[in-house]
Q: What sequence folds into this?
C-alpha cells in the first residue's frame, strides 16, 4: 500500500508532461545514460568508449560529450518553477547546460581523481534543487534529470558519502537522485551494493532527518516521503530490507497507548512472550540510562509520520497516507486516523474527492480480513465470530458499568449492529459519560488524544469499531459486473463499420441512455456543466452479446456449429440486430431503485533444431560435446538429427522413412539458433517454469515454435496450450507451427482472429451495379422456389413487379390466415408445426447435428496443440471445465503484456487429478521493458497497480530467466538506442556482415531520423 501513495504523489506533484521525453532525448541522452541500469551489476562490461575499468555505460555519458570552448552555456533554471520549466531534455540541452560543465570537471571523467568538495554539493542543492517558500512547488525536474544523466549519484555523491559527516544537502541530493531513478523506472539500488555498511548508515541518516533541528519545506517533505515509499516498495532487495523492516517490527508497539497495548496482547496471546523478551532486552541495554524505549528512533518513526499527516490534514493540504503492515494496524487504530479523516472538512469538500477515495482505501485495508501475524485469510465465519465476540463484551460492560445502556445491553445484536441504530442508542449518554466509555472503559483511544473531547469523534470511533462490516466477498458479489454511468464517463471515438461487424458471442457492449437538451447551452452554462450534462447522458449499463444478425437476419460470427464454414457469407446491409444478456446484479439494483519439477528428461530429441554438427558444439560452449552412434561408439562424421543425453553426449540417428513422394518429406528448420536460444529451448523442454526475456528482434517466436516442435516429438502423448495476448501474435505463432513437422490434424485454433476477407468483388460503381443485378437474380430464384412449394406457376418470378404481387396475394394472405389460426389454438403447441404454410419451402434447411460435439471431441481427445487468446480462455473457462479439457504444458507469448489475472486463468482451465495439478511445464515468453498491460482505469492502474504483469512481477522478485542476447532486426546503430536496457544485447553476425545493413535507405539522409509532429489544431 505504500506503493499507492507514491503513485498519488506523482500524480499530484508532477505534471503529466514531466513523464515524457521528446524524440531528441530518446535518440541522445537516454542512450547515453542508460547503460548498466538493468539491475545486474555483475553483467557490466568495459565501456567501448572508456579506457578505464568497467563502468555502467554502454555509450558516452552526458558529461563526456565534447564542449567547444566558445559553446554557449545556458543559465540554470533555479528560479523557474517545475510546472513552467522544461519537462524533457535533449542532447543539445545537456551539452549547453552549466551542470554538464561542472560534471565534466568534477565527476565526469572515467578515471577522474578529483577531490571531493562538500561545498559544491551544498551549492548545487541550494541553486539547482532546493525550492524556496512553503507553497506546493516541486523540485525542478529539468535540473534533476540533468544531474541524473551525468551520474551525479554513482560517481560523486555515493562514493564520497560518510554517514557521520555528510551534510543535509548531501543526503537530500541522494534522495532526489534515487527518486528520479524510480521515476525513470530503472534500477535504483544497484550502485549501493558495493558498500553495504555505508548504505545502512545512509538509510539511518535519512530516517534521522526528521529528528534534526531543521524545518523541511513542502517539496522536501514530499520527496522524503516518496523516498521512504520507494524503499518500502523495494523489500525484495536484501540491502534495503535489512534496515527498513526494523521500522515495522514488534517494537513499534512501544508507541501504543496503554489500553490499546493491553487489548492487542489479549487478542494475540502468542505475542506476550515475545513482548516480554523485548522489554527485558531493552531494560538490560538501557541500564543506568533514563531514555524511554518509546523515544527510540525506529519505534516512533511511523507514529511521527502519522502525526505529521494529521497536522497537515488540519491545515487542509492534500497529502494522503496509506499504510498497513503487521504491527502498524494497531497503531493506526489507536490514533484513530480513519475517524479523524472522516470528520475533516477536506473529506466532504468538492476538491477532496481524491483524498476521500484514499481514506476509503485506508479504511478498507485497516479492516482487511486477514490475520496480521499468521498471514492466513479469515473466513466469513471467523470475521462474524470476532464481531459477535466484540459486541458481547460491549454488552456485558454496558450492563455492569453504564446504567443508561441497560436497555441497549439487552437488545439483540442483529437489531443494533448497523451504524445508524448503534449511533441512535448512544444518544442517551452525555459528553462526559461518552468520553469515559470510549477512553477509559473500552480503551479504544487514549484520553490524551486531542480530539477526545469531541462528541462526534467519540461516536465515530465507537461505531466504527462495533458496527458490522460487509464482508469482502459480499461486497464484490454485490457490485455490478459492468460499469455504469457513475463509474465510467469518457469520450468514445467513433467506431468503424468493420469493428461492429466483428462483434461475436460473449463480447461486452455498453447501453447508453442519452436525452440531450433541445436548447443549446450558453457559454456560461457550458463552462459550468459536466460532460454528462452537456451530452445529455443519463445512464450507462453493460451487457454481454448472445448473438448478432445482419439486415437479413442471418447469423454473424457464430462459432457454435449452427453455421457451417462453407456456408458462411459476408453480412448484408447496414442494420445489425444484437441479442444481449443484461447484468443480473445491476438489473436488481435498477429494479430496486425503479422499484519446480523433479522428473527431468534424460534424453532430448532435438529433431531439426541443429543445422549441423558445428552448430551443436557452438550451442554448448561450456561443455565438452562428444558425438556417439547408437551403439556407443564415437561418430567422427555426425549429421543431424541429434539426440542429446546427460553430460552432453550427442547421438546421431536415422529418422524413419516418411514415404517416397516429395510431399512426404518433413519440413526442416533453417534457423541457426544462438546458444542462448538453445538454452531457452532446453529449459522449455524440461518440466517446471521457464521464463524467456526477448528483446526486439531476438527471435522470441522462432524459439517458442521450436520449443513446441521439440516438445511434441519428445512427449507425443501430452497436450500443449498456447496463450497470447493478441490474435495477431497468435496467428503468427500458429502459422509458423504449421511450417514445422507437426501434423495439421493435431493443431487446433480456438476463438476468432482478425479476419481478412479474401474477395475478388469489384467495388467500383459499375461493379456495384453488376452485384445488384446478380443479387436480383438470386432473390427471384428464391421466389420461384417458394412458388413451387405452394404449387403455383413459376412465372411469378419473371420480374420484381410480379414477385411483389405474388407476395401480396399468396404469401402475405397465407401468413395472416396462419396467425389468426394460431391465436385461436394457443393451447396446442403442435398446431404451429402442423399448420405452418411454408414447411415445404424450408424442408432443405441444413440441420447442425453433432457439430459442436465433434468440435469438443477434437479439442479434448485429438488435438495436441491448442491455441487461443487469454480473453478466450477467460470467457470459455467454465466450458473447458465441463468438457473435462486436459493439458500438460502451457506456453504463453506476449506474457509481459498480459494482466496477472489473465495469466493466472489459463493455468486453471482444467481440474486437478487426485488433488495434484496436471500442469508439467509453464513457459512464459515476453519482454517487461516493452509495452505493459493496458489498464485504462486510472484507479486500477495507479492504486491497484494492475498494469504490472505476472511476468514482470517474477522478474522483479528475482525469478531466474533466460534473456536472448542477439538481435537480427535492426542496424547496430539503431539497436544502440535500446540495447542499454538489456544486459548483453548484441547483434547476429549477418547484421554486421550483410551489405543490405550498410546501405542507405531511400529518402533518408541518416540511418535514423526523428520527425517532430506538432499538435494539429490543438489536438
A:
Amino acid at each position: 500500500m505504500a506503493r499507492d501513495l507514491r503513485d498519488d504523489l506523482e500524480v499530484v506533484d508532477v505534471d503529466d508532461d514531466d513523464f515524457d521525453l521528446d524524440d531528441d532525448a530518446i535518440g541522445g541522452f537516454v542512450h547515453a545514460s542508460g547503460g548498466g541500469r538493468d539491475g545486474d551489476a555483475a553483467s557490466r562490461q568495459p565501456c567501448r568508449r572508456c579506457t578505464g575499468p568497467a563502468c555502467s555505460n554502454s555509450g558516452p555519458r552526458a558529461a563526456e560529450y565534447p564542449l567547444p570552448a566558445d559553446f554557449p552555456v545556458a543559465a540554470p533554471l533555479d528560479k523557474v518553477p517545475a510546472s513552467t520549466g522544461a519537462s524533457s531534455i535533449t542532447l543539445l540541452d545537456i551539452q549547453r547546460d552549466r551542470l554538464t560543465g561542472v560534471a565534466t570537471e568534477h565527476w565526469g571523467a572515467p578515471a577522474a581523481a578529483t577531490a571531493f568538495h562538500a561545498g559544491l554539493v551544498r551549492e548545487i542543492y541550494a541553486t539547482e534543487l532546493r525550492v524556496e517558500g512553503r507553497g506546493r512547488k516541486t523540485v525542478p525536474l529539468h535540473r534533476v534529470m540533468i544531474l541524473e544523466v551525468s551520474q551525479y549519484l554513482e560517481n560523486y555523491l555515493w562514493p564520497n558519502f560518510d554517514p557521520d559527516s555528510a551534510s543535509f544537502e548531501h543526503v537530500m541530493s541522494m534522495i532526489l537522485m534515487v527518486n528520479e531513478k524510480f521515476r525513470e523506472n530503472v534500477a535504483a539500488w544497484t550502485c549501493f551494493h558495493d558498500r553495504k555498511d555505508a548504505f545502512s548508515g545512509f538509510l539511518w541518516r535519512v530516517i534521522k532527518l526528521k529528528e534534526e533541528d531543521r524545518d523541511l519545506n513542502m517539496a522536501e517533505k514530499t520527496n522524503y516521503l516518496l523516498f521512504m515509499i520507494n524503499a518500502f516498495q523495494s523489500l525484495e532487495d536484501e540491502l534495503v530490507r535489512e534496515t527498513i523492516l526494523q521500522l515495522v517490527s514488534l517494537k513499534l508497539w512501544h508507541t501504543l497507548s496503554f489500553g490499546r497495548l493491553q487489548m492487542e496482547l489479549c487478542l494475540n496471546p502468542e505475542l506476550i512472550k515475545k513482548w516480554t523478551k523485548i522489554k527485558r532486552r531493552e531494560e538490560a541495554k538501557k541500564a543506568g540510562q533514563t531514555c524511554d524505549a518509546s523515544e527510540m528512533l525506529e519505534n516512533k518513526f511511523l507514529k511521527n509520520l502519522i502525526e505529521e499527516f494529521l497536522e497537515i490534514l488540519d491545515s487542509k493540504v492534500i497529502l494522503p497516507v496509506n499504510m498497513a503492515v503487521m504491527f502498524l494496524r494497531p497503531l493506526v487504530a489507536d490514533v484513530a486516523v480513519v475517524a479523524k479523516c472522516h470528520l475533516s472538512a477536506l473529506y466532504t469538500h468538492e476538491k477532496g474527492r481524491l483524498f476521500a477515495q484514499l481514506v476509503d482505501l485506508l479504511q478498507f485495508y485497516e479492516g482487511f480480513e486477514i490475520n496480521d501475524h499468521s498471514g492466513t485469510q479469515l473466513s466469513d465465519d471467523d470475521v462474524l465470530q470476532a464481531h459477535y465476540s466484540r459486541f458481547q463484551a460491549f454488552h456485558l460492560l454496558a450492563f455492569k458499568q453504564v446504567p443508561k445502556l441497560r436497555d441497549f445491553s439487552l437488545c439483540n445484536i442483529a437489531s443494533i449492529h448497523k451504524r445508524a441504530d448503534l449511533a441512535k442508542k448512544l444518544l442517551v449518554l452525555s459528553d462526559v459519560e461518552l468520553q469515559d466509555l470510549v477512553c477509559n472503559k473500552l480503551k479504544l483511544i487514549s484520553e490524551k488524544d486531542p480530539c477526545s473531547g469531541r462528541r462526534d469523534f467519540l461516536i465515530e470511533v465507537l461505531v466504527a469499531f462495533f458496527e458490522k462490516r460487509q464482508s469482502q466477498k459480499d461486497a464484490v458479489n454485490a457490485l455490478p459486473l459492468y460499469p455504469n454511468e457513475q463509474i465510467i464517463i469518457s469520450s468514445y471515438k467513433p467506431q468503424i463499420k468493420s469493428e461492429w461487424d466483428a462483434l461475436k458471442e460473449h463480447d461486452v457492449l455498453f447501453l447508453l441512455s442519452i436525452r440531450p437538451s433541445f436548447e443549446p447551452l450558453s457559454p456560461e452554462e457550458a463552462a459550468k456543466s459536466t460532460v454528462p450534462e452537456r451530452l445529455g447522458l443519463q445512464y450507462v449499463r453493460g451487457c454481454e452479446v448472445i448473438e448478432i444478425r445482419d439486415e437479413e437476419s442471418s447469423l454473424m460470427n457464430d462459432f457454435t456449429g449452427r453455421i457451417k464454414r462453407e456456408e458462411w457469407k459476408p453480412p448484408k446491409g447496414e442494420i445489425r440486430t444484437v441479442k444481449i444478456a443484461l447484468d443480473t446484479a445491476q438489473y436488481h439494483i435498477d429494479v430496486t431503485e425503479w422499484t519446480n519439477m523433479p522428473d527431468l528428461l534424460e534424453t532430448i530429441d532435438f529433431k531439426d533444431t541443429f543445422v549441423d554438427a558445428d552448430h551443436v558444439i557452438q550451442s554448448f560452449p561450456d561443455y565438452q560435446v562428444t558425438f556417439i552412434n547408437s551403439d556407443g561408439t564415437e561418430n567422427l562424421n555426425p549429421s543431424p538429427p541429434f539426440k542429446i543425453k546427460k553430460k552432453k553426449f550427442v547421438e546421431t540417428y536415422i529418422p524413419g522413412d516418411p514415404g517416397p513422394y516429395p510431399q512426404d518429406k518433413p519440413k526442416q528448420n533453417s534457423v541457426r539458433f544462438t546458444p542462448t536460444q538453445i538454452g531457452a529451448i532446453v529449459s522449455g523442454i524440461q518440466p517446471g517454469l521457464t521464463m524467456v526475456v526477448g528483446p526486439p528482434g531476438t527471435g522470441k517466436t522462432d524459439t517458442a515454435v521450436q520449443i513446441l516442435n521439440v516438445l511434441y516429438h519428445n512427449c507425443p502423448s501430452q497436450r500443449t496450450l498456447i496463450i497470447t495476448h493478441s490474435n495477431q501474435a497468435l496467428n503468427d505463432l500458429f502459422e509458423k507451427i504449421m511450417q514445422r513437422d507437426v501434423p495439421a490434424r493435431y493443431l487446433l485454433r480456438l476463438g476468432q482472429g482478425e479476419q481478412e476477407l479474401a474477395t475478388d468483388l469489384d467495388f467500383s460503381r459499375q461493379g456495384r451495379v453488376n452485384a445488384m443485378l446478380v443479387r436480383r437474380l438470386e432473390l427471384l430464384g428464391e421466389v420461384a422456389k417458394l412458388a413451387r412449394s405452394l404449387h403455383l406457376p413459376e412465372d411469378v418470378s419473371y420480374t420484381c413487379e410480379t414477385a411483389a404481387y405474388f407476395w401480396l396475394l399468396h404469401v402475405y394472405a397465407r401468413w395472416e390466415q396462419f396467425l389468426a389460426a394460431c391465436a385461436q389454438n394457443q393451447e396446442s403447441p403442435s398446431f404451429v408445426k402442423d399448420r405452418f404454410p411454408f414447411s415445404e419451402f424450408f424442408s432443405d434447411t441444413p440441420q447442425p447435428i453433432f457439430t459442436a460435439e465433434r468440435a469438443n471431441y477434437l479439442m479434448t481427445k485429438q488435438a495436441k496443440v491448442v491455441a487461443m487468446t487469454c480473453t478466450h480462455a477467460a470467457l470459455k473457462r467454465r466450458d473447458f471445465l465441463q468438457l473435462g479439457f486436459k493439458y500438460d504444458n502451457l506456453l504463453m507469448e506476449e506474457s509481459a503484456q498480459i494482466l496477472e489475472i489473465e495469466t493466472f486463468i489459463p493455468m486453471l482451465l482444467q481440474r486437478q487429478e487426485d488433488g495434484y495439478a496436471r500442469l508439467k511445464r509453464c513457459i512464459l515468453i515476453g519482454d517487461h521493458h516493452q509495452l505493459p498491460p493496458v489498464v485504462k482505469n486510472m484507479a486500477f492502474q495507479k492504486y491497484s497497480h494492475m498494469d504490472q504483469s505476472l511476468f514482470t512481477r517474477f522478474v522483479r522478485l528475482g525469478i531466474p530467466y533466460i534473456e536472448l542476447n542477439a538481435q537480427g532486426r535492426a542496424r547496430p546503430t539503431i539497436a544502440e538506442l535500446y540495447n542499454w536496457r538489456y544486459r548483453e544485447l548484441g547483434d547476429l553476425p549477418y547484421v554486421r556482415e550483410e551489405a543490405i545493413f550498410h546501405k542507405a535507405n531511400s529518402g533518408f539522409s541518416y540511418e535514423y531520423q526523428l520527425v517532430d509532429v506538432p499538435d494539429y489544431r490543438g489536438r
User: Anything to note?
Assistant: The chain has a mean pLDDT of 76. The radius of gyration is 36 Å.
